[in-house]
Design brief:
By secondary structure, this protein is mainly alpha-helical. It has one domain. Helix content is about 45%, strand content about 5%. It has a two-stranded antiparallel sheet.
Amino acid sequence: SLREGLILASIIQKEAHSEDMPGVSMVFQNRLKVGMTLGSDVTATYAADLVNPNRDRNDPNNNLRVLETDNLYNTRKHTGLTPGPICSPGITAILAVAEPDENKRSMRYFLTGDDGKMYYSVTDTEHTQKIRDYCQKLCSVGL
């Protein structure tokens, strides 16, 4: 539906740079099709910021609590989309929903590495290795 497309586009808007949006869109659509959680940190932080806009984003313990919080916006805990958009998506994110990157059809995971590049994986094992190889800072602290 249009509403679901806008919700997905809002998550993509927060997750990716413009050039990576079609790939991220495909990963999310792949995960939705097979009933996986989206696993998006930006949805959990959206809810945390609503509850406590002054929270300390530099505190690793606080950030871990955000990811463990059980609310409908935490797509690490709940399958499907969030109840509503988490931002106003731009046209690039909306188009990425309509035209995802078909070259990423087999991908189920992605991460933005410390170098700012997007890395895609098919399996959880491969994804975990890419976190070790490419994401020492971003994947451990900042939300």
